[in-house]
Amino acid sequence: MPGKLKxxxxxxxxLPVMDRASDLTDAFVEVKFGNTTxxxxxxxxxxxxxxxxxxxxxxVDDEDLQDEPLQITVLDHDTYSANDAIGKVYIDIDPLLSCxxxxxxSGWLPIYDTIHGIRGEINVVVxxxxxxxxxxxxxxxxxxxxxxTTSIPRxxxxxxVHGFVEELVVNEDPEYQWIDRIRTPRASNEARQRLIxxxxxxxxRKIGLKVLEMGGNAVVGYLQCFDLEGESGLVVRAIGTxxxxxxxxxxxxxxxxxxxxxxxxxxxxxxxCSRQSSSSDTDLSLTPKMGxxxxxxxxxxxxxxxxxxxxxxxxxxxxxxCFPPGFLVHIGGVVSARSVKLLDRIHxxxxxxxxxxxxxxIRQEIKSHAKALGCHAVVGYSESTTICEEVCILSAxxxxxxxxxxxxxxGCLDAGGSEHSCGFCHIPYDEFNMPFPxxxxxxxxxxxxxxxxxxFTTIDLPAEAAVTGKGCLIQARLCRTKKKAQGExxxxxxxxxxxxxEYELHTQLMNxxxxxxxxxxxxxxxxxxxxxxxxxxxxxxxxxxxSALPAPGGIQITxxxxxxxxxxxxxxxxxxxxxxxxxxxxxLYNIHPLECIEEVVGSPIPDxxxxxxxxxxxxxSDELSELDLSHGKKDAFVLEIDDTDAVEDIQSLLxxxxxxxxxxxxxxxxMPGIYNWTSGLQMFTSVxxxxxxxxxxxxxxxxxxxxxxxxxxxxxxYFKLRSMIPCCLCHLNFTVAVxxxxxxxxxRHTPKHTSPILYIFPKNILVRSGENxxxxxxxxxxxxxxxxxxxxxxxxxxxxxxxxxxxxxAPVTVVKMTPLSFLPRTRIVKYLGIINMFFIRETTSxxxxxxxxxFLHSFIAEVFAMVxxxxxxxGGNAVVxxxxxxxxFMENPNKNQAQCLINVSGDAVIFVRESDQEAIPPLIMSGxxxxxxxDGTT
Amino acid sequence: MSMELDVFxxxxxxxxxxxxxxxxxxxxxxxxxxxxxxxxxxxxxxANAEVLTSDTMDQFRTFQxxxxxxxxxxxxxxxxxxxxxxQNQRILIERYYEFDSVxxxxxxxxxLSKGTKxxxxxxxxxxxxxxxxCRRQFDNFKRVFKVVEELKGPLVENIxxxxxxxxxxxxxxxxIVFFANSRFETGKRKLQYLSFQDFxxxxxxxxxxxxxxxxxxxxxxxxxxxxxxxxxxLKDLKVLVNDKDMMDQHKILVCAALRGKIKVYxxxxxxxxxxxxxxxxxxxxxxxxxxxxxxxIDLVEKFIEPCRYDRWTVAEITLFLTHYTxxxxxxxxxxxxxxxxxxxxxxxxxxxxxxxx
Lengths: 938, 357
Prior knowledge:
Chain A is an alpha+beta fold. Chain A contains 17 helices and 31 strands. Among the domains of chain A are: 133 residues, Immunoglobulin-like (Sandwich), CATH 2.60.40; 373 residues, no CATH class; 101 residues, 2-Layer Sandwich (Translation Initiation Factor IF3), CATH 3.30.110.70. In chain A, the strands form 8 sheets. Chain A has a 6-stranded mixed sheet. In chain A, strands 4-1-8-7 form a 4-stranded antiparallel sheet. The radius of gyration of chain A is 28 Å and the shape is globular. The two termini of chain A are 49 Å apart. Chain B is mainly α. Chain B has 3 domains: 69 residues, no CATH class; 110 residues, no CATH class; 127 residues. Chain B is built from 21 helices and 1 strand. Chain B starts with a strand and ends with a helix. The longest helix of chain B has 22 residues. At the A-B interface, strand 23, helix 12, strand 28 and helix 15 of A face strand 1, helix 3, helix 4, helix 5 and helix 10 of B. Strand 23 of chain A pairs antiparallel with strand 1 of chain B, so a sheet runs across the interface. Chain A: It holds the Pfam family C2. Chain A: One of its GO terms (molecular function) is calcium ion binding. Chain A: This is C2 domain-containing protein 5.
């Protein structure tokens, strides 16, 4: 019994009218934890009840404290009939279990109902008294800190990085239980919310246990996902990186980015004995194919492995995307694996082994891919799924890399990182034994080591990277039709299509990259979603020109039948347009490398080769590589004009509208090439759903539509944000889905739709302002003004004579939300705990609520409001690394119904604004720029 | 292919105040898009019609969702749903409660009831203000009226506290509430030349000097009603016309002061008794609610029109009223100085405000 949870219900406000006759409400509150329930008195006839309850005390196991949320239900007392529920508040106790996080949850929290949304607010105080339990066999992992942030949190120092942790729990989805046939949708949805809250708690506890086993005290880069598998169940899974973090004493925080630990953070290398190479990702079979690539013989690897066998780990994966300088030795390239699975119908919640095995398989594959690239670790690792009926695609991707064991062992290696360094660009694989044909040159920075001519990664741009010009968002979009099918046939069809899609996405990315005269991609994210009769692929990344890499060649167009004169003419105009675009982009992104001139005017033949090897660099699957080659034999550098695909490609290349002046966009945390950020930031979520009018479209038609949709969406964003110019859209995160007919309906009624729906939502876009040097003054002014608005409600009149105070009491704390791990020009002083919330909202009066748009708009606003309120209750004033993981929308307009599920997560923090003196000349703090400032400018 | 759903939600609610105005004006989305196009919105950021429509719809939806909160502005500051910077909150509220004085003029003095609400169609046709906007403005009047009607204390301050409006706007609302409560006649043809601002000024005067709150700031009663006791005491002023001596002496004093100073002296001398009688009779009748309602029409018919007929200038009226008021103090037998000043002060400034074409 090592914990005592105490809760106090103070007051309510803005409650809805529950009694029509009196226009008032007789409210009382039920506080429930586990199986214990307490009630407050009824506060009669008020919309602003003051309960001022006693402390309700729950004596519970810390295991329960981790799993269970505190449930607060506000009800309307009714003498003659059953009490009506007004709404609920779920409070995650977890932040209170770590001594370094929050100590109390206290504040106004929105009362939420799945049908009515937010219905007033309730003021509660929650505390936990935790007794130490030194039982070795304990099932709880209280005190392990969780961070969504994919870098070492700002006010901590990594003493040790233990490595990959993963866990998954499965359960039956209450929505699909037999009892659901007799209970109301509301009860069902509440059951779902409760269950998912419980499952996430359990998952976090189990991961925490693993971390404790490894000797760590924190999980960084914690990524939790739900798979709504429909009838086969509900999977909640999570991955993260276990670390031992030391809290930095305020004042020494400037050193925080350097993991200057005396104890070696042992990085776990992969098994050097495994000789298995990349296998087919898209195969249904479980047997991995034996590859041909010889294993790399890295000196680091062997050395490291033998010196630290204790920390040997099965999967040397890191969910981090941002590292202390010098941490990354080399980057190999993107590794990814996909696998198509059929969801089994019979499901046993107690045996998550099937799902575990699936992921295990994928991870093995990733590991072997990394090895093929001569790397012992995978960084920027993430996993995702896409489900369409009973077919499920599991995907994993990351960046193969060599990490610096010496650095880790000897601690502070006089941080060569603050200087520009090119080390990470150098190839990790053996030059004479390359896993794929690649064209290598000597590094343009140091002239000593070999570098590839293009680099694709899933991580953020390392701080030490030298960049020429500015970066920009690069997207590849692809649509492929597929025949409707069931079960295994469907799965096979999908897995046959996947390699082609990946190949084409890569080709597109490559072309767009070249068109912008850039040579590296960071933050690459490829999403493939399945619909009933189409597959969608969307790849986003931030392109940059790495100074260490050679200048990219131009794009050459060749025709297959150069007989026709007019045809030649056509080709040459095309070529000219492309050349013009390249020249224009160079100006636009300010790319003027020193020695690029001779490279650009490349002949078509080396170009062709080069384009081929880029692809290989970035793709890991053998199958893909083979495909690639076969395609190459047929000729076809992508821009061959005979090919319909090529025409399409050229179209898409040239139709990408340039950004309006004053805008920049990227999908990474920081925009390469822009350094002077202001603290003005604004986070958005935008969702769009399109209905395709004709289901019998061709691939090309679909592609065109898809591209237009994405472009239009971006245009809309630019227009909306025009008042913030100059500004940069950071962390632009697109998600697409093709909800199949089954999904579109609400609650299992027979669907009436005949056409597929395209469903795009770029989520968590962060807009930051900040601009080139000459405009700095201006932009600072602009945003400082909007920043300083006091959150106080404007109460103008002195309430000299007022005897009754108005219900507006304390001012609402302004809570910032950002998908970034930091807030520019501020300093994070405390992490208060992880925010992980799941909501369902349903309606049976869709039209009355303003249609689908009105419904979703208010729901998203409500979710934001609840996140903000919970952060404020923890004492925080911002959420960093915020992301909307899941947003599933279903509607049935014929029945006037809609339903939506949203899952959000992030880290609640307290930040303080750097005072102006501190921010501009960072003289204080031992002569080093304060970290936030320094990182903000990388 | 059609857009089924299109939402854009920011952590800080972003609002384009130009679009807000279009929304307040009661425009439909397509009309608003047209207006924005005409204003050159397409030139910015390479926008196209689709982008503009999407943005307009989105903004309109945001405003619509905020409207509920704007009905009780104090809630806007404490609500959690939308994170709106204080500066923007203020603008949102102020603009929402702003009204067209043409519209206010039409509704002024009318009972803020369902019946009047039905006449909004006519008002909309007459003024060219969209029906939607008329409804909003009417509902605002009604809402403010309902909240402050029963409240004690200064009217303007009450309105400011409950609706967080600027001083000027709160004063205008005070006028509207005051007129609606006392139901002053403003619709007569002869009063048509008066603008909302004229009446608002008069209302301000009445509130400041003739209500209970005006004398006793520790208020028992509220600002909305005229002080009964005062109206009753006004009857005493009748001596000024009933007592022949006093009236003659009053006239002599005024004439002595004005001789050679005004062009219309002759006419004034002839008309003095009529004018004085008109003002004094008006005062003595104010105990009847009916006559209070007719205050303005009486002022126009009995005083302003005769003067206008004789082509008095504003300056002449000012002089006349000043001396007319002051002369009463010199009447040895006149004992009601306090009441007299309180009455004439307001009447004078009202007449001056109302004396124009």
